[in-house]
Amino acid sequence: MHPFPYDPFQQEAVQSIREGVSVFVSAPTGSGKTVIAEVAVEEALRAGGMAIYTAPIKALSNQKFRDFYVRYGEKVGILTGDITLNPDAPLLIMTTEICRNSLFEGKERFARCRWVIFDEGHYLDDPERGTVWEEALLLTPRETEILALSATIPNAQQLATWIEQIHGRPVRVIQEEHRPVPLKVAFQCHDQLYWEMGRLKTEGYRGSDRPPAGRRPFRMGRHRGGKYYFRKARPGFVPAPEHRGPPNRADHLLREIQKAGHFPCLYFTFSRKRVEDLAWEFAALRLASPEIRQQLLSRFDELCRKYEISHERSAAGMRELVQQGVAYHHAGLLPTLKEVVEVLFTSRLIQVIVTTETFALGINMPARSVVLDTLLKRSDGPRTVMRVRELSQMAGRAGRRGMDETGFVYLRINPGEISFSQLSNLIQGKPEQVSSRFNLTYATLLNLYRSLEQNLMPFYKKTLHAFQATAVQQREALSLIERKLELLKRLGYIHPPGSVQRLSAKGNFAVSIYGYELFLSELFELGMLERLGLIDLGMLLLALVYEPRRSGGPPLHLTHHLRDLADPAYQVLEAIHREERKLRISPLTKGPAFHLSAAMERWIAGAAFDRTVETAQAAEGELIRYFRMTVQLCRALAAAPAASKSLKDKAGTLLRRINRDQVDAEAELRRSL
Fold first, then answer.
1. Cα angle vertex 602, ends 600, 608, to 5°?
2. Does residue 2 lie within any of the structural domains?
3. Which has the higher per-residue pLDDT, 454 or 438?
4. pLDDT of 392 higher than 80
5. Which long-range contacts (C-beta less than 8 Å, at least 24 apart) are formed by 600-605?
6. Which of 15, 168, 243, 333 meets the CB 3.0–4.6 Å disulfide criterion with 621?
């Protein structure tokens, strides 16, 4: 099928697929796992069956659709919630959530499915979404073989044994440690480059392992022109020996990478603002030659015309960067502008992309070198040292197979932030084990109750959580399930055991509205969804999907009209929270946040996107993402079995009003084919 010889681990996986045996492949980023997935797809289609390819994020689903479309054309379809193309095609690309939902709705789609591919299988460990992978793996029919592809994880055999037990199917585990393109790691410390950890400790860390805790010794500011500089030490700060020396300069590091001939480069940092600031700083280095600059501008303008974004202000700003061989990439960008950046990078003309870590997830954009701006990440609390698997995922983008003999990873080290022992563990330690994040949503429970009634114990006993947990942890998990079922009884979603209809009308409404089921179902029962006008319904749904940034911002001011919409909604939410608190259910049901209501009102009224963004407390890409999530929720309402015809019609009309121009993900995908 492929014109090149397979590596030994690929040969073993391909042989297993051709024998019809499920496979769990654990291998480093960039080692060629996608080749194995392509063989599974080919085998399924050749046998007259179908294949399903699941991916964790929509951007990766879109990329896989484009890749497979080149080979299979109209034989490939995609389902992501905001895109539905060729839903009856023999090869379907979908997000893992859509796959899980399809399995609950009915297994007809899987009747002819020979192979289901779970890409990025280590997502089982994701705190928020890992339960979706677990449920999808558990519900996959025995007749459908499973191919799970994962970054390197130490307990792949344990996960395969779990799948074997719940399905009674053999699962062959293939673990590969070798990278086809080896990595060489350098450390920037006190603005010096160290290629050996021994020298880094003696010179960079001054022989010390763990420096005393304290504030950063230098404050960073900006000149008006955008260049960074370092102010003097903070007042009262006495530097420890390991702090003495000049601070790391990102522009100095880029010059060293350029001298070494290690472009193109992916520069990872964890703040959108810093992404953009660094990109402008690097543009001042003029990394592109005059000939490359001309090619870049010509290609950039051509792509902007193709995606119809030449008039966008963000595209004009990016053009200034691109002509210097630099670009940036993060979730706040217009999706089409992100696509332009990706295409330019694959053309090998862009020298440096400054990006957040989402660029490391599955998107096939390898570079010759990778820089990590810091080894600290913020999750729910203060910044902490990142995990080994996170570092491996980003570092794994260094080194292009078939093009580079070696990939280069540059880590920027501040001894005041990370001890030498922490650094050693991060560089030399094994990736973390994948653990269950099982946490049934109310919608999942309703789907299970509909088929299993009260007897959910056998279902739980099949979960990865039960497989990995202690007896005490199992009892706690079952107790939470029972408390959630009790809540559903108290609120009237389920009928007592033995009833002809196991779910009430409200329960039937809630089964397909994952994540927002209680709040919307309570409004549905009160008739509020029926009474709302088109714009108010759009504002309410957007408020429900919106997640305010952790950084906060100014207090939200509600207009009189918005208060009339928000007050009854908050009363419903508080009633749900009261019952959840009584039953010790955590986390509490998410409520609405009306920060983007003015933008939605303007958009539904037909305003242009640039005028709409002006009213939003969000970046362009963020606003489009939330509008698309609202479209997905409109689709769920329009398809809800218990919804009235008028509510379904209103949801359909709202969908069409929102899903236009830049928000229309399907049109955007079609333009990229």
1. 110
2. no
3. 438
4. yes
5. 600/535, 600/538, 600/539, 600/542, 600/627, 600/630, 600/658, 601/535, 601/538, 601/539, 603/627, 603/657, 603/658, 603/663, 604/534, 604/535, 604/538, 604/654, 604/657, 604/658, 605/535
6. 333
Are 525 and 596 part of one and the same domain? yes
CB 100 within 8 A of CB 447: no
**Sign, Cα dihedral of 84, 90, 92, 96:** positive
Domain carrying residue 658: 504-672
Residues in the chain, total: 673
Count of domains forming the chain = 4
CA geometry: angle 9, 15, 19, nearest 5 deg: 145
The C-alpha torsion from 515 through 517 and 519 to 523, rounded to 10°, is 150
DSSP for 126-161 reads -TTTHHHHHHHHHHS-TTSEEEEEES--TTHHHHHH
**Amino acid (one-letter) located at 113:** C
- Summarize the confidence of residues 237-253 as an average pLDDT: 72
Q: Which residues of 106-142 are buried (b: 16+ CB within 10 A; e: fewer)?
A: eeebbeebbbbbbbbbbbbbeeebbbbbbbbbbbbee
Q: What is the 3-state secondary structure (H, E, C) of 189-203?
A: ECCEEECCHHHHHHH
Whether residue 59 contacts residue 119, with contact meaning beta carbons closer than 8 Å, is answered with no
**241 within domain boundaries:** no
Q: Please give the Cα distance from 562 to 540 (Å, whole number).
A: 10
pLDDT category at 512 given cuts 50, 70, 90 is confident
Mean confidence (pLDDT) of the chain: 89
My answer on whether 455 and 404 are in the same domain is no
The residue written with tokens 């860390």 in the block is: 205
Cis amide prior to 241 (ω within 30 degrees): no
Decide: helix, strand or coil at residue 92.
strand
Which residues pair with residue 55 across a beta bridge? Answer: 95
Q: How confident is the model at residue 426 (pLDDT cuts 50, 70, 90)?
A: very high
- Residue of higher predicted confidence among 232 and 287: 287
On whether both 301 and 366 belong to a single domain, the answer is: yes
Query: Encoding tokens for residue 292?
Result: 């490359």
Question: Side chain identity at 615, as an amino acid letter?
Answer: T
Backbone φ and ψ for 201, nearest 5 degrees, come out as -70, -45
User: Predicted confidence band at 59 (pLDDT cuts at 50, 70, 90)?
Assistant: confident
216's tokens: 């950063």
pTM, full prediction: 0.90
Phi, psi of 53 (to 5 degrees): -115, 115
Residues 6 or more apart whose Cβ sits within 8 Å of residue 15: none
**CATH number of the domain where residue 304 is located:** 3.40.50.300
- Integer Cα distance of 113 and 144 in angstroms: 6
How confident is the model over 316-325, as pLDDT tens digits? 999 999 999 9
Give dist(CA 595, CA 382) in Å, integer.
26
